[in-house]
Design a protein that fits this description.
Chains A, C, E: It comes from Punica granatum (Pomegranate). The complex is a heterohexamer, with 3 copies of chain A (93 residues) and 3 copies of chain B (85 residues). Chain A is mostly helical and 93 residues long. Chain A contains 2 helices and no strands. The radius of gyration of chain A is 19 Å and the shape is elongated. Chain A starts with 13 loop residues before the first helix and ends with a helix. The longest helix of chain B is centred in the N-terminal third of the chain and has 33 residues. By secondary structure, chain B is mainly α. In chain B, helix 1 packs across helix 2. The chains are: A mainly alpha (93), B mainly alpha (85).
Chain lengths: 93, 85, 93, 85, 93, 85
């Protein structure tokens, strides 16, 4: 998620800006690690259904790769649309 | 936690920062739920390719738009007049 | 969720009471924002299934409204029953 | 974070507050899971009206009661004798 | 989840060790309470489907007990395998 | 929050602790998702007994192994070369 969408820091005093910025950084780290976990869970659930082998099979690997790529592209597209709507809402205020 | 000479008190400041933090968490969660829900509604799960096709892309755009409208609608229903953003 | 169900502050020293009360406030804000997000996700998922249009259709809107109202009424009823059970458990101690 | 002249030390106090916070989070989560689960089990999802009907209401009451019993039962099984409340 | 899997504190200065250790304790308390909630939700969802009675029926009770035991055994087994893989990954570094 | 005479500054220290906390949260969440997903994939839900049978046990072992491999694979795809551990 784009940092700018989390808040506008321009009008804050310097000390608060630093603190707020640190808070945003922490939220972003947490969010990206959670996103990583969700992506793994989703692609595993969608692609791996047989447990006859201990090793990931070739077609499972391909499926996971496509799933991850597709999800990331999806996520970027949603981010763009979401930012547009946010923009529109902000200018209405 | 430093004392502030003017403006809001230390306690008020904590509350303001706490509120800002919750609001940011809310936005992140909204975005994540929207992303996950629209993926489930729009994207083919057999993963025959790694590109989103035209149908999926247009579904995603409309899904985001409708999710946004539902978010606003529920905000109105809850009497706040607008969603918590 | 009712604030009183989160804890009994009566026996605490004043400074701790203020701190605990602030903590409860923060939890409640977080909880109500999460509840809001869940409600939107649930009613969207249950009511919106067609993506031929960009705009929410009339019957989707009606569905979302009923879904939200129903969920809120449900949530209030659960809250009452939950409080009764909590009460019962507390008096048993 | 102020020093306390008597009673628990600053570190102990942090632990007590931390524990209280976790317990409150636990209660909120219990309530939310219960609410969501009983909605799924009891409420008709076609949303033909915005009222809960008699059947739904009685289902909800029993669902909450049974969820509570399961919560206690699992608490006993885990050897704590009671759920973490 | 085993505490040792969350981090290696041996090389830290004493004050940091205490702080880090406290952080791990807090995370573990939160995690075990969440695990408890998930277990209850899972076993309730899998075992209770009839709401003709207010009281848990005997066969529902048995089901919940087996579900909880099975999940705990499962969780312990996963923990062992997970630790082995973590170990292997650590020695590769 | 105490001042440190040598080594990292107070601010840097906060960031290091914050990062360590997020990493631990990540590991806990990874473990919980893995546990839940493999339970869904491998364990029979009629609960006719409280023991895991041989088939379930072997399924669990392979499920954990494959989940781990998927975790590494996604880490590679995201260009970090390894998952965030």
């Amino acid at each position: 998620m784009d940092k700018s969408m989390l808040g506008d820091l321009d009008n804050l005093p310097e000390a608060d800006k630093i603190r707020m910025s640190g808070m945003i950084d922490q939220l972003q780290i947490r969010d990206s690690l959670r996103m990583y976990n969700s992506l793994v869970e989703r692609c595993f659930s969608d692609c791996v259904d047989s447990f006859k082998h201990k090793k990931l099979q070739k077609q499972e690997e391909t499926c996971v790769q496509r799933c991850a790529e597709k999800f990331l592209k999806h996520s970027m597209r949603v981010g763009m649309r979401f930012a547009e709507l946010n923009q529109g809402a902000a200018t209405q205020d | 936690m430093a004392a502030s000479n003017a403006g809001p008190s230390a306690l008020e400041k904590e509350q303001i920062f706490g509120m800002a933090e919750k609001e940011m968490e809310y936005r992140v969660e909204l975005f994540n739920k929207l992303t996950s829900t629209c993926f489930n509604k729009c994207v083919e799960k057999k993963y025959k390719e790694s590109e989103l096709n035209m149908g999926e892309n247009s579904c995603i755009d409309r899904c985001v738009s409708k999710y946004w409208q539902v978010n606003n609608l529920v905000g109105q229903l809850l009497g706040t007049g607008r969603p918590p953003m």
